[in-house]
Amino acid sequence: MNAAGAVGPAAVAAQVAAVVAGAPLLAGLMRQVRARLEGRAGPGIAQPWRDLRKLMRKEPITPVGTGPAFRTAPLLLVASTAVVAALMPLASTATPAGVRSDLILVVALLALGTVALALAGLDTGTAFGGMGASREMTVAALVEPTILLAVFALSIPAGSTNLAAIVSGGIHDSARLASPAGLLATAALAVAVLAETGRLPVDNPATHLELTMVHEAMVLEYAGPDLALVELGAHMRLTVLLGLLASLAAPWGIATTASAAAVALGLVLFAVKVALLGAALAAAEVFWAKLRLFRIPELLAGSFLLALLAVTASYFLTGE
Amino acid sequence: MNDAVYTQLLDLACGAFLLAAVVVLWLRQLASIVRVFALQGVALAAVAALLGTYDRRWEVLAVATGIGVLRAGLLPLLMRRALTALAPAPGHPYEEDVSEARETEPLVNVAASLLSAALLTLLAYAVARPLVELNPTPATRALPVGLAVVLIGFFTLVTRRRALAQVVGFLLLDNGITATAFLAASGVPLIVELGVSFDVLLAVLVLRILTTRMRAAFGGTGLDDMRELSDR
């Protein structure tokens, strides 16, 4: 009993540690896959960690005239994402935090990070910061309802908005995942994750071109350790959201009991699933072009519609 | 085929049917719209075939085959021919008239029409509620899907400018009506189905000829430019 009681908190700690340590590696893996497909040698998957170490050693500098919004945003971003990583059933559903892993709370925490960064972009008072913040808010306003609706569609068969309950329901009744509602919700969630993490059809993470960047424009004024935190936060968001997608669409292997071996297996499978998803995304990005900014609302309205159809399908077709 | 598998497959086919209608609203390239319409025909044939297999009524299977051939094969083929007839002659790559191959500016922009499609789907569900409650089987539960496709087809018909996009809207409407008939009453009698199918085929043939003539007479198929009758 005592040993089982200790596994739960250990699983939460392991999830957070895996996300923090693994997120830069995931970003490195994606860049490496992309480089290889483009015929370049690539810097290796540990390069983001080396970048972070270099930035951490630099002297912290903040622009003149910036206030607390600018200074606290990187910390808020990393902290809120770490809390999300602790709450979500990434490796195990039987954690003490799993009881509180409510869908609305998770989306609110993710939105908190977005808003903190947008405020920081406004706080610098530069043209690019304001432009990036305004664009980020346009995208976020369309993405948050889509994520909510898509996960809500998956929550109807489970009868609860608790993510742990949804995931364990998916493990026990896998026919639920292949239903029209499940497939539509997964598709909508995939588009929403791309937009939320600023990946290619919505935002190009590799560019610093003034007219097209969204995320980069907001963080243009950051330097040194603050920039390191912002980058780490962005990598962590990507990992957490891909993990959410993997847990909801392919929940097999996630531990449902509080045993150490199951949690370890769940962690390994989580890493494998996220790495596979990331590699597939990076490979797909080679073939995609960035959408025009004015076409993005179309894409997001489409994914919102998919999520809404998923909700109606799971509510009406199953006819509970 | 046991009940659970049947319900699952029927739901999947109905989901694909509705999704195809939505994707038609989402796309701009007329060639891709025609391809998606063909996929919708496949989904409709699958719905009919599933109902026929489940009820062991073999004439429904024959109707399903007919629907598949007509709506997934013949009608898309005719529309593709009309598209190539509209395209400029090859050999002038720099004079390509792109505006004819795309729905450049629908009356309602794409994001708004997607949101309208969401509203129309909800409306269809609300309207079909009393019908579903009469006899809740898996097939009647999917009835709102047919009504939603009827509404979305009508919306496409009203808001698109190109003649071919409007033809697709008309055919979506017809697909929706057929699906509603199948889901509500396991199909109409064979003779009625045949009549409707020939009607649709004839309509598409006539519209195709009309499109070519319009193009020859006015140099475009944008229906908004034609406000008055001209006497030449």
UniProtKB/TrEMBL annotation, chain A:
It is a multi-pass membrane protein. The chain crosses the membrane at residues 73-91, 103-122, 142-165, 177-195, 234-255, 262-287, 299-318. It is found in: Membrane. It comes from the Bacteria. Keywords: Lyase, Membrane, Transmembrane, Transmembrane helix. Its main location: membrane. It holds the Pfam family NADHdh. GO terms for cellular component: plasma membrane. One of its GO terms (molecular function) is lyase activity. This is Formate hydrogenlyase subunit 4.
UniProtKB/TrEMBL annotation, chain B:
One of its GO terms (cellular component) is plasma membrane. The chain crosses the membrane at residues 6-27, 34-54, 60-78, 107-127, 139-157, 164-184, 190-210. The keyword Chloroplast does not apply. InterPro entries: HyfE-like. It is a multi-pass membrane protein. The keyword Membrane applies. GO terms for molecular function: oxidoreductase activity. Its EC number is 1.-.-.-. Keywords: Cell membrane, Membrane, Oxidoreductase, Transmembrane, Transmembrane helix. It comes from the Bacteria. It is found in: Cell membrane. This is Hydrogenase-4 component E. The lineage of its organism: Bacteria, Bacillati, Actinomycetota, Actinomycetes, Kitasatosporales.
